[in-house]
Amino acid sequence: MDGSKSTIASFIIERRRFLTPEGEVAADLPAFATDPAQLIRLYRAMVLTRAFDAKAIALQRTGRLGTYPSSLGQEAVAIGVASAMRLDDVLMPSFREHGAQLWRGVMLRELLLYWGGDERGSDSSGPKHDFPVNVPVGSHAPHAVGVALAFKLRGEARAAVCVFGDGATSKGEVAESLNIAGVWQLPAVFIINNNCWAISVPVSRQTAAATLAQKAIAAGIPGEQVDGNDVIAVREAVERALARAYAGQGPTLIEALTYRLGDHTTADDASRYRDDSDVSARWSEDPVARLRRYLTKLGRWAKEDEECTLVEVAAEVEAAAEAFLCTPAQAVESMFNYTYATLPRDLAEQRAEALDTGG
Ligand SMILES: Cc1ncc(C[n+]2csc(CCOP(=O)(O)OP(=O)(O)O)c2C)c(N)n1
Ligand SMILES: [Mg+2]
User: Fold this and answer.
1) What gap in Å lies between CA 192 and CA 165, rounded to an integer?
2) Distance CA 27, CA 46 (A)
3) Cβ neighbours of residue 240 closer than 8 Å, sequence gap 6 or more
């Protein structure tokens, strides 16, 4: 025995799952999940998110939408997170959380406007205090610290909920945010939507760590992993983290482990860097099918329910797409009008030029 050393700290990272991929119950369900009506609501939201996704891709492929990031296979993260939140919490999404935005009241048409390059989509029907989609990887983590600090200073029982990808965990500002949120014990929940890829970079090339959840350890905050294809597990973990935040117990890092079943965006062709067979194998963990299997076993979901839901969401999505396509484009000068009170000279010149040429 070496008397010169002793253990001064040790850590474990837990992983939670309630439903297996086959839709079997793996652990005692949290209270909300014992109510089939609540689960059906989560299920329907995931199905709507998926239908929206397919439509958005089709619109992009036919030249009617800009570059679009699919959330195929990751619906349980978005819906699990959003369904755990209160409306007066602040959602700070990255670009793959369409389902969370929808849950919080953003309309399908508004999402299409945004991804169609029209910023009016960010002035949405969701809570005005939610942040717009964050495209720069991980740069909203410090913003979450600021939001959470404001809640703490004001003594409000609210939380900042910041979602980013596995790739973002290699960014300095994400590490810095976790660190200072820990020091200041802020009401923030950081969620890593780990879809195993950052464009063509697999997680194994992103970090040598066994999990991303353990990035919490150095910050001195709780970190855990959940099965990100189990909407019950995601929601349960976020609910617990939010309860800690409201009670002044500080931030939490949750790694939701899922898989990106589609391309990174419509500008990507993932078959160039990953095997189709790997992707096919991952379909066995599909979060939508998983909850459907469970509801079916419960006797709460039949073929007719499925058919009916698919027809309903398709109609919702089609109507939104029509409304989006009929929305008149903004005047060309609008792209210059909202950033500066007084336009810098170069932009003023560009604005004049754009008006001269009619855009
Ligand atoms: C600061 C910054 N650098 C680079 C990019 C280009 N980029 C867009 S998405 C992406 C990968 C992000 O991976 P991850 O964080 O895992 O999120 P995912 O796309 O998988 O949801 C990169 C590098 C960017 N948007 N912002
Ligand atoms: Mg990723």
Assistant:
1) 5
2) 22
3) 252
Q: What's the pLDDT score for residue 358?
A: 57
* CA 268 / ligand 1 centre spacing (Å): 12
The amino acid occupying position 124 is S
Task: Reduce the DSSP state of residue 181 to 3 states and report it.
Answer: helix
Residue type, 2: D
DSSP secondary structure letters along 241-308: HHHHHHTT---EEEEEE----S-SSTT--GGGTS-HHHHHHHGGG-HHHHHHHHHHHHT---HHHHHH
* Tokens of residue 83, six digits: 């369904």
CA atoms of 66 and 94, how far apart (whole Å): 17
- Location of structure tokens 């189990």: 230
Whole-structure pTM over 0.90, yes or no?
A: yes
Q: Is 4 exposed, middle or buried (0-12, 13-18, 19+ CB in 10 A)?
A: exposed
The environment of the single-atom ion ligand 2, i.e. residues with CB closer than 5 A, is 165-166, 195, 198
| Cβ atoms of residues 313 and 44 within 8 Å | yes
In this structure, what DSSP letter does residue 25 have? B
User: Is residue 258 in contact with ligand 1, taking CB distance under 6 Å?
Assistant: no
Q: What is the pLDDT of residues 285-323, one digit of tens each?
A: 999 999 999 999 999 999 999 999 999 999 999 999 999
Question: What stretches in the chain show pLDDT beneath 50?
Answer: none
Say what the pLDDT of residue 285 is: 98
What are the catalytic residues? 260, 264, 273
As a whole number of angstroms, the distance between CA 225 and CA 12 comes to: 11
Query: Residue 351 in contact with residue 333, Cβ under 8 Å?
Result: yes
